[in-house]
Amino acid sequence: MNMSEAKVLVCDDSALIRKKFTGMLENIGCAHITEAANGQESVERFQEINPHLVFLDIVMPEKDGLEALADMVEHNPKARVIIVSSAGTQTHVKQALDAGAVDFIQKPADEATLKKMLDKELQKASESPHV
Amino acid sequence: MFSQYFGQYLLQQGYITSTQLREAMEMKKNTHVRLGVIAIDRGDMTALDVEDVHQEQMRRDKKFGSLAVEKGYITNDALEAMLNAQKQPHLLLGQSLVDDHVLTLQEYTDVLDQYKQEHALTDEEFDAFQRGDIDLIIEKMVSLGALKDQGLAHDYIALLSRNFIRFVEPNLRIENAEVASIADWTVTQKIHGEETLYTALCADEATFTQIAAKYAEEDIHGPTELAQAAVGELLNLHNGLFTVNMSNKGTELEMEPQLVHHNQALAHTGASTVFHVHLPFGSCQIVLSEEPLL
Predict the structure, then answer these.
(1) Any idea which fold B146-289 has?
(2) 4-aspartylphosphate is carried by which residues (chain A) (predicted)?
(3) Domains, chain A, with CATH or none
(4) What is the pLDDT of residues B94-120, one digit of tens each?
């Protein structure tokens, strides 16, 4: 699968972060980007579009990122979710990975990091078809 | 940062007028040389290397030089040479005041001594102050009020100073303020866990918009949704870095989502302390409290 085919879900309550993420993802070739502005909406969009990769903030209203992650993993145990947070303590990283996240990025993310992660995930998706 | 405090002192003591201070600070701003620029100028780092270190600074509370060494871009010897090459900001302020005949060299020397005495600064502390030692500046210039955990409050304000310098504006001065009146725009965020801290950033509309534009690096005019998201994210990023620092010290904290309010009065109690952050384009207030602000 190439970058333009990947479905990416960006979940953050900050309109600025969603704008920056979407801009960076478009720059690296993503064409199917969906945004969600809180934890509940994140889960709903996840169930609707079944994305190849999710960037998920932890501190969000309605439902926090870790709760949303649990719902996503319950809906699809093969969900590929990368947690993105400004609070990158070891405890948070461990909580996220224990809950089923595949990686953790501390905010603010840069384009090179996003590209590296997408390349890695798309490589995995090619080896193991998306469910 | 020393220049902001010392410049204010010169103004308050009647040595200079506000116009002279503004002009001197403007001249100083134009001649301030950042370490990244020196690194490029000396050929120690490429622009991409410098950008990489700047990106890393947005995730980790470390100085430019330390990160550049850690990442292998420069050696410790090169860093030392770069630091020596960097002009001292206070010298630039003094230089512009003397060059413009606002103060004689002797008057400048005398008023520096007077400043040192009035603020009970030892020679070592004064040197550290002039080098921009933020921990010392906060300790000497800012009262942390009635907050029970003074160490926590100190760490919070010192990090806030560094984050404003990194992400918004390098020329700032923080001082205590009276209880804030209703601000046009306020962002609040609760930090909880082993400690509880209610935090707020308040500003008038023009300053709020400027902070947003500078932090987001976007063309923002007015308190739009993007402006609100930007200032909200600034407080969120700062509080996030604060929780990382506290976690590294063994105190685990969590954050609640930040909230943006328009014309919102805050509930100030004896457990809150208010700080003015003076920026060249306006002032904002930072409120720290151990009790709810809303």
Answers:
(1) Chemotaxis protein chec (3.40.1550)
(2) 57
(3) 3-126 (3.40.50.2300)
(4) 767 777 788 876 787 788 888 888 888
